[in-house]
Amino acid sequence: MRALPVLTSACLLSLTTACSSPAAPTLTVYVPAYLPDSLLVACSEPEWSRGGSYRELAALAIRRASALRDCNQQLQAGRAYQQQLRAGEGTVPGK
Questions:
Q1: HEC per residue, 29-81
Q2: What is the pTM of this model?
Q3: What's residue 65's pLDDT?
Q4: Residues 88-94: contacts with CB under 8 Å, at least 24 apart
Q5: Distance from first CA to last CA of the chain, Å, rounded?
Q6: How far apart are alpha carbons 94 and 85 in whole angstroms?
Q7: Any residues with CB less than 8 A from the CB of 56 and at least 6 apart, and which?
Q8: What is the pLDDT of residues 50-93, one digit of tens each?
């Protein structure tokens, strides 16, 4: 019966030696990336006063289409900026 505690101690001792020489720690650098203020501006929505003629309704449709194009351009610029940041991942800023 005395062999079991000795054997258990020998196994536990061999397990603890694996932790005695840890590998070098990995240094993680966090670099915040902020979107430019021009990309954070809310998209405008043209308003229409109730009533009016078909001509005013057509003008509203044109203004809304223009606002939608502007908003899509803003989103495309944001996506391009994000792709630019992703392309630079793995580099250390300032070096």
A1: CCCCCCCCHHHCCCCCCCCCCCCCCHHHHHHHHHHHHHHHHHHHHHHHHHHHH
A2: 0.54
A3: 94
A4: 92/29, 93/31
A5: 64
A6: 15
A7: 48
A8: 777 888 888 899 999 999 999 999 889 888 888 888 787 655 45
